[in-house]
């Protein structure tokens, strides 16, 4: 027979329903106190700017007026953006930039990781060399590549002309057709080491005994990769791809320094375009509307990123 | 070695007449120099005729023992400037600290292309400096927005008549003066006589018209396989409007009517037949003849300088300081490159900027102005006015407005032309009198808050749209005109 005291009954009632949530929160009051400073900082540096950007996106900010004198225009900024041919051009550029940079960086990084996973003489040196593009300053790298690509006296042009393979230096960044692919090459060069490091870390987690067992069972190298290694890397691959995609969506330094979004907007991606709208043209309202749209896209990517991470945790928990 | 193709009575007459037309927009009181007599010879005759005691003059504005604190941003030297200018900037701040030992100065140098963006951002956060020296293009925007305090030359011990009337326009908004010009500049046309000779052109004669520039550029490219004219069309770079606008105005075009004596800025003229003819000239050089650097769409004048020094570029528009820049670059060269560079320097010639088909000659009346911010936009909410006036008095003094423009520009304070340093400068800075002769043809950018966007974004966009083939010349000009119209009408 269970004897229910008045105190225990009160506690049971509190633990059920809405009041139960409050009770649980009360029980974890110390945990909340620990994270409170971080939440407060986040509210100030993240929540308020997001709110202000959303508010600003409904206003017009002519160059002759201060920001505080902004004019309410409702959804006009969003309408103007979505009906502007520049928006679609910049969006198309951003898609190409993000997808190509992410996919090729990942494939190259994965390939490099697999190559460097084997033990061979000079592996450490090679690994250090391959990481260099990722660790050097993006600004410095952009200036170096600008000179490498220079349409009149760039390094590539000089080599090609010197070898007699071209009459004049190729036009990489002063041409609307070649500028974006040229910048994507620089971006891939800079970020594939990140994918390589992530995948190398992932490869460390593949159980050696499984690979050995598969080998004993007669599985070929490809079969071992496809049926043992790759499934183990699916979670880290998803996270790497999502992180690359978010970073590429947010890219600014390489296109801005190398071309400023030109020529003729051919290398403008969302972030550079937003920067030019805000700081070059002072169209803070339009730039804010662009930012809100970009925020929604990145939030969607962020959702999948968190889901991927949670999936990893669940898998690890099951294991 | 100076074989400049100017001089002669005809030129002097033209210069004087043009000066009166273009610079007498406001009534001249009693200017320290007689602008109606302006000529290289006149400038020489007044140089070194008057002494100035800067510390004593500024001591009357702000006592030399004044104790205070000043935050100050300025458009400083950049990669395309000569070392000489760096030395003078360093010397200025050292002298200021010696003259006003009790003023705690926190200065920050920013390059031309970065300054506006950073200053705007700082203003939005009420974190601007107490005083700022901005490019001539920026003053009107910030005055119109109400960020600047009224400030006129009289506030720091000078007279409005001590400054170029055209320059005072750029610091005036709605009838109120909001700043003081520090320096004013006009560029000149530079060519390599050796390249001209090898291309079958007269080595001592600059192209007379912009159509000649197109022709010469093609001839140089076709005969020697190098670039003829140093076209610059990068976006968000001050170099682009400074080189394209003289061409646009010479053909009789303009963004508005800014090239007229009394501009109203009412009608957009960027798509007029004259403006289109100017754009067509650039198109002909870049697309049709391929006679200019391919990198013109992403480069700046700083990229043209090494090309010129390497003997790979025949002509360009730039400052007199480019001669000193070439000397600096030549010193850094080694081996045979050093000798090649010396040959280019020996063959460097300066002349007046070419005219349009109707004989119209024009150049951007450039420079910088210095301003004081209102306290509410300044970090800490306070402006130390006496300290701000002390540095402004010094920078705009005859002595320092000349020294800080020693190699590349002209003093904002006309009294600078009378100093002993001007005399010394005339003897040491080659080709200075050519750019000084261009001053009367100077046209200020439209004094509108929208000017930075027009000059730094819309005009370069127009060039890029035409030169990349993204649009035809007509479409690019129409598109740019429409953008200017929308901007001015506040549709965006």
From TrEMBL, chain A:
PANTHER family reported in the protein's UniProt record: BLR7065 PROTEIN, SPERMIDINE_PUTRESCINE TRANSPORT SYSTEM PERMEASE PROTEIN
Domain ABC transmembrane type-1 residue range list: 91-305
Parts of the chain that traverse the membrane: 32-54, 95-116, 128-145, 233-258, 283-306
UniProt-listed Pfam families: BPD_transp_1 (PF00528)
A GO CC annotation given for this chain: plasma membrane
Organism: Mesorhizobium sangaii
Subcellular location: Cell membrane
Entry's family note: Belongs to the binding-protein-dependent transport system permease family.
Keywords assigned: Cell membrane, Membrane, Sugar transport, Transmembrane, Transmembrane helix, Transport
Matching InterPro entries: MetI-like, MetI-like_sf
Swiss-Prot/TrEMBL GO biological process terms: transmembrane transport
Name of the protein in question: Multiple sugar transport system permease protein
PROSITE patterns: ABC_TM1
Major subcellular site: membrane
Membrane topology: Multi-pass membrane protein
Signal peptide coordinates: none
Automatic annotation (TrEMBL), chain B:
Cellular component annotations (GO), alphabetically ordered: ATP-binding cassette (ABC) transporter complex, substrate-binding subunit-containing
Pfam families: SBP_bac_1 (PF01547)
Entry-linked CDD domains: PBP2_TMBP_like
Domain of life (superkingdom): Bacteria
One GO BP annotation of this record: maltodextrin transmembrane transport
Keyword Chloroplast annotated: no
Protein name in UniProt: Multiple sugar transport system substrate-binding protein
Native source organism of the sequence: Mesorhizobium sangaii
């Amino acid at each position: 027979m269970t004897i229910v005291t008045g105190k225990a009954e009160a506690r049971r009632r509190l633990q059920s329903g809405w009041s139960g949530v409050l009770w649980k929160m009360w029980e974890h009051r110390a945990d909340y106190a620990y994270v409170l400073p971080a939440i407060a900082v986040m509210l100030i540096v993240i929540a308020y700017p997001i709110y202000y950007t959303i508010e600003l996106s409904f206003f017009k900010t002519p160059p002759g007026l201060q920001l505080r004198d902004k004019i309410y225009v409702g959804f006009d900024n969003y309408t103007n953006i979505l009906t502007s041919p520049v928006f679609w051009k910049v969006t198309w550029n951003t898609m190409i930039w993000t997808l190509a940079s992410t996919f090729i960086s990942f494939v190259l990084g994965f390939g490099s990781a697999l190559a460097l996973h084997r033990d061979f003489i000079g592996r450490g040196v090679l690994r250090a060399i391959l990481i260099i593009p990722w660790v050097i300053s993006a600004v410095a790298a952009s200036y170096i590549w600008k000179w490498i690509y220079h349409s009149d006296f760039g390094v590539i042009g000089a080599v090609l002309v010197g070898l007699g393979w071209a009459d004049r230096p190729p036009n990489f960044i002063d041409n609307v057709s070649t500028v974006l692919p040229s910048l994507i090459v620089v971006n891939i060069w800079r970020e594939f080491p990140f994918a390589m490091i992530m995948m190398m870390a992932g490869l460390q987690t593949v159980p050696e005994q499984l690979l050995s067992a598969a080998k004993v069972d007669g599985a070929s190298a490809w079969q071992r990769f496809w049926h043992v290694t790759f499934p183990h890397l699916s979670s880290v691959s998803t996270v790497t791809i999502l992180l690359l995609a978010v970073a590429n969506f947010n890219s600014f330094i390489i296109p801005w320094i190398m071309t400023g979004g030109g020529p003729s907007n051919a290398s403008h991606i969302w972030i550079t375009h937003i920067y030019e709208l805000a700081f070059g043209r002072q169209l803070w309202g339009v730039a804010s509307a662009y930012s809100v749209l970009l925020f929604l896209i990145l939030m969607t990517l962020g959702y999948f990123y968190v889901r991927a991470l949670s999936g990893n945790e669940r898998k690890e928990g099951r294991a | 070695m100076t074989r400049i193709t100017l001089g002669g009575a005809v030129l002097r007459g033209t210069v004087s007449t043009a000066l009166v037309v273009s610079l007498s927009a406001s009534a001249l009181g009693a200017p320290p120099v007689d602008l109606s007599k302006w000529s290289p010879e006149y400038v020489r005759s007044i140089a070194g005729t008057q002494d100035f005691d800067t510390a004593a003059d500024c001591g009357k504005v702000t006592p030399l023992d004044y104790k205070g604190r000043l935050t100050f941003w300025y458009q400083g030297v950049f990669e395309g400037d000569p070392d000489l200018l760096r030395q003078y900037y360093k010397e200025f701040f050292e002298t200021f600290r010696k003259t006003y030992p009790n003023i705690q100065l926190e200065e920050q140098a920013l390059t031309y292309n970065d300054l506006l963006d950073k200053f705007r951002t700082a203003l939005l956060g009420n974190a601007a400096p107490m005083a700022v020296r901005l490019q001539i293009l920026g003053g009107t925007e910030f005055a119109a927005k109400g960020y600047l305090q009224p400030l006129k030359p009289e506030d720091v011990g000078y007279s409005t008549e001590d400054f170029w009337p055209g320059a005072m326009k750029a610091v005036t908004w709605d009838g109120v003066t909001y700043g003081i010009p520090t320096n004013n500049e006009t560029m000149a046309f530079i060519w390599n006589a050796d390249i001209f000779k090898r291309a079958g052109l007269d080595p001592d004669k600059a192209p007379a018209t912009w159509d000649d520039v197109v022709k010469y550029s093609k001839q140089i490219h076709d005969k020697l396989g190098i670039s003829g004219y140093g076209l610059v069309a990068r976006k968000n770079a001050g170099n682009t409007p400074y080189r394209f606008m003289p061409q646009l105005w010479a053909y009789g075009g303009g963004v508005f009517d800014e090239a007229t004596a009394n501009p109203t800025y009412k009608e957009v003229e960027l798509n007029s037949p004259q403006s289109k003819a100017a754009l067509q000239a650039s198109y002909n050089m870049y697309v049709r003849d391929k006679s200019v650097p391919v990198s013109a769409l992403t480069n700046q004048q700083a990229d043209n300088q090494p090309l010129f020094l390497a003997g790979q570029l025949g002509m360009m528009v730039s400052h007199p300081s480019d001669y000193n820049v070439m000397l600096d670059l030549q010193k850094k060269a080694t081996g045979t490159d050093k000798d090649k560079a010396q040959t280019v320097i020996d063959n460097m010639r300066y002349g007046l900027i070419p005219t349009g088909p109707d004989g119209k000659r024009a150049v951007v009346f450039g420079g910088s102005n210095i301003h004081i911010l209102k306290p509410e936009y300044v970090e800490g909410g306070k402006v130390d006015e006496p300290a701000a006036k002390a540095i402004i008095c010094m920078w705009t003094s005859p002595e320092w407005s000349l020294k800080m423009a020693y190699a590349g520009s002209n003093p904002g304070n006309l009294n600078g032309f009378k100093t002993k340093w001007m005399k010394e400068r005339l003897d040491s800075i080659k080709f200075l009198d050519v750019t000084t002769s261009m001053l009367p043809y100077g046209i200020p950018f439209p004094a509108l808050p929208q000017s930075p966007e027009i000059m730094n974004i819309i005009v370069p966009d127009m060039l890029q749209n035409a030169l990349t083939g993204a649009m035809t010349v007509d479409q690019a000009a129409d598109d740019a005109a429409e953008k200017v119209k929308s901007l001015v009408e506040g549709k965006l």
